[in-house]
Write a structure and sequence with these properties.
Blueprint (H helix, E strand, L loop, with lengths): L4 E3 L9 E6 L1 H7 L5 E13 L3 E14 L6 E17 L3 E2 L3 E5 L4 E3 L1 H10 L14 H14 L6 H4 L20 H12 L1
């Protein structure tokens, strides 16, 4: 991972380009959401005066668990981001700019590249309809129908005769607003 460390105090940094091939070993070292992947990242230093501007472009694919069936899901990644870095007294993240201690004078881009990749992913990562693991989808369907009252008991599907009180579960006799009772009736019909 030392190849991701850039010496900010070196001469001729502006306009310099760094190329990285990111693979499964990189993601194992980071130990995050992404399990595997194959990407190419290009880092170009666009400015090296008081603020260093690094343009980071990553293109390739990552493999993450599907949020629905937990099977491997391959996602295409194409992202271009800018990382602003400046030298200071101690390390700090000021939102749009990272401060690196001048005494150290080096920045490790590995974590930033990883974060930009993760941020480019959709919020919900699921297979296209019909592409999820059949066994898992069957189990989810079976448990969902039990939870929603599909094969539940009369107590699960009934409302009390008092319009201000609803049975919200097997263990609850709390009074509930009429609007929630109407919503529960709609849910039970589904």
């Amino acid at each position: 991972m030392d190849t991701f460390k850039i010496d900010l105090l070196s001469r001729g940094l502006e306009g310099k380009t760094f190329e990285y091939d990111i693979d499964d070993a990189f993601f194992r070292q980071i130990d995050g959401l992404i399990q595997r992947g194959k990407l190419h990242s290009t880092v170009t230093c666009k400015g090296a005066n008081t603020i260093y501007k690094f343009q980071i472009q990553s293109v390739g694919t990552v493999i993450v668990p599907c949020d629905r069936c937990m099977s491997d899901l391959e996602l295409r990644i194409e992202t271009t981001d800018v990382l602003n870095v400046k030298l200071g007294d101690e390390y700090a993240d000021e939102g749009d700019c990272v401060v690196v201690p001048e005494a150290e004078g080096r920045i490790d881009l590995a974590q930033f590249i990883y974060e930009f990749i993760v941020l480019s992913m959709p919020i919900v990562c699921c297979h296209e309809p019909g592409k999820c693991d059949d066994t898992m989808m069957h189990e989810l369907s079976r448990h969902q129908s039990t939870r929603s009252g599909g094969e539940g008991t009369e107590q699960d599907n009934s409302l009390s005769s008092d319009s201000r009180s609803v049975v919200i579960g097997e263990d609850s006799d709390e009074p509930v607003d009429d609007r929630w009772a109407a919503l529960k009736q709609l849910k039970d019909k589904l």
